[in-house]
Design brief:
The complex is a heterodimer of chains A (178) and B (251).
Chain A lengths: L3 E7 L5 H7 L4 H5 L3 E3 L13 E7 L2 E3 H13 E7 H6 L11 H11 L17 E6 L9 E3 L6 H12 L15
Parallel strand pairs in A: 1-2, 1-3, 3-5, 5-7
Antiparallel strand pairs in A: 4-6
Chain B lengths: L4 E4 L2 E4 L6 H7 L23 E4 L2 E4 L10 E3 L3 H17 L14 H9 L15 E2 L5 E4 L8 H8 L6 E4 L6 E4 L26 E3 L12 H4 L28
Helix pairs in contact in B: 2-3
Classes of the chains: A alpha/beta (178), B alpha+beta (251).
Chain lengths: 178, 251
């Protein structure tokens, strides 16, 4: 049977979910009998090609996140929101009740003890969105793997279920929001 | 079927006259998911998580009087899907950031989500702008997490006799308010020993300085699901609720 092609990325995330995926430890070898990686931070492939599964960590906080998320959606048969930030917006979304301009002004211009170098405006920097969004507010998401991060065993259960053609069932101890 | 018995998911549940369906079910070691219900207080019937089908119609089991011969469906995919939606709406309506909440692992809303298999809030998050009140020396309120269950209102009035809390407003603007001229908790006579200080099912009313005394991962609902623990408090005897002097005649 052909290996399933899997892409992963971290948007407005901290890579903690990727670290938790790596925490399946030696089970990675078993997993790699069934999957191969496309774009991930592990392969350094820059763009997502046609894939079976896309795992996305982090929410949507800027224009580049939106572009990458849409590229994943176009190319992945199954798109998975991985971790609290992808599922709920998470920690970055705690700025959502604040005005973005006021945030930038405070951090870069007025807060005592910071450098006050001016609000960055390099054209290469993606523009921030006024709110941080979970993935499902921008594209259709097929599965949600919550947790901050999801436990390694949740990754293992989820991926082995998908590889086996089953609907993933997490159950107690594997569905975590914290 | 004997006289004081109803049928829950195909098997009989005995009840005492005056009990509600939920009270009788819990006393008989039968779990019906619930959130705003607390055995020591008058049922409130607001969260609707305990909704069951009675003779084909939905009803909140915490307030529905047990009657002989009722045919009740609870643990069905239809009812659990409805409960999941209710839990999802509560998550989307407030700011429930579990990774940074010290109630995580002891939170009834979170535990219900785990047990019902809720993996996403599904709806568009509202990200409301709500304050935190840290004015009291021993307690604090994070309004971002309040689910308007009214347990603190009921505890403060029915048990503590202080009526420190109330709900104000209607619909989406409904919110928890504090009964002091400044509106701050620090200006009330609430004590950390009060029932109202300990009854919050989520992380809205919390004691200070003990947040992480028990580490994440070793807390109540980390150890076993809420459905396996909710019966620990049963049987749930009912003491008639007495309104406190400052509430009398207000309803």
């Amino acid at each position: 049977m052909a290996k399933l092609r899997v892409a992963t990325t971290s948007l407005a995330g901290c890579f903690g979910c990727h670290m938790s995926l790596l925490d399946i430890d030696e089970r990675l070898f078993e997993l790699l009998k069934h999957i191969e990686f496309d774009r991930t931070p592990l392969t350094d492939i820059k763009h997502c090609g046609p894939c079976d599964i896309g795992l996305i960590e982090g929410g949507i906080c800027n224009a580049e996140n939106v572009e990458v998320l849409r590229e994943f959606r176009r190319n992945c048969k199954i798109l998975v929101a991985v971790g609290a930030c992808a599922v709920t917006g998470g920690l970055p979304a705690q700025r959502n009740h604040l005005d973005l301009g006021a945030c930038l002004t405070e951090v870069y211009l007025t807060e005592p003890g910071l450098a006050h170098g001016g609000i960055p405006n390099d054209p290469e920097l993606p523009l921030p969105l006024d709110k941080v969004h979970p993935l499902h507010e921008v594209v259709k998401v097929d599965y949600f793997l919550p947790g901050c991060p999801p436990p390694a065993d949740a990754f293992w259960q989820f991926l082995t279920d998908l590889v086996a053609g089953r609907t993933p069932e997490l159950g107690h101890g594997l569905i975590k929001y914290d | 079927m004997s006289e004081n018995t109803f049928n829950l998911d195909g098997s009989p549940v005995p009840f005492e006259p005056g009990q509600t369906v939920l009270q009788a079910a819990l006393a008989a070691d039968r779990y019906i998911p619930h959130l705003c219900y607390h055995p020591e207080f008058k049922p409130h019937g607001s969260c609707k998580v305990c909704t069951v089908k009675v003779g084909g119609r939905t009803a909140a089991s915490c307030t529905f009087p047990a009657q002989a011969g009722l045919i009740i469906e609870s643990n069905t995919e239809e009812m659990n899907a409805l409960r999941r939606t209710l839990v999802q709406m509560l998550f989307a309506e407030g700011n429930h950031f579990c990774p940074s909440c010290e109630k995580s692992g002891n939170c009834l809303l979170q535990a219900l989500g785990y047990d019902l298999g809720v993996t996403t809030a599904g709806f568009r998050h509202m990200f409301p702008d709500r304050p935190v009140d840290a004015s009291h020396p021993d307690l604090w309120i994070d309004f971002n997490r309040c689910i308007l269950c009214e347990l603190c209102v009921r505890a403060s009035c029915e048990v503590d006799g202080k009526c420190v809390f109330a709900l104000s407003g209607r619909g989406i603007t409904k919110n928890l308010v504090v009964n002091s001229p400044s509106g701050l908790l620090g200006d009330t006579d609430i004590s950390p020993d009060d029932k109202a200080a300990h009854v919050c099912p989520v992380g809205a009313i919390l004691p200070k300085r003990v947040g992480f005394a028990v580490p994440i991962g070793e807390r109540r609902f980390d150890l076993s699901p809420i459905s396996a623990q909710a019966l620990a408090d049963a049987p749930r005897s009912q003491t008639p609720a007495q309104p406190c002097s400052s509430c009398e005649g207000s309803e």
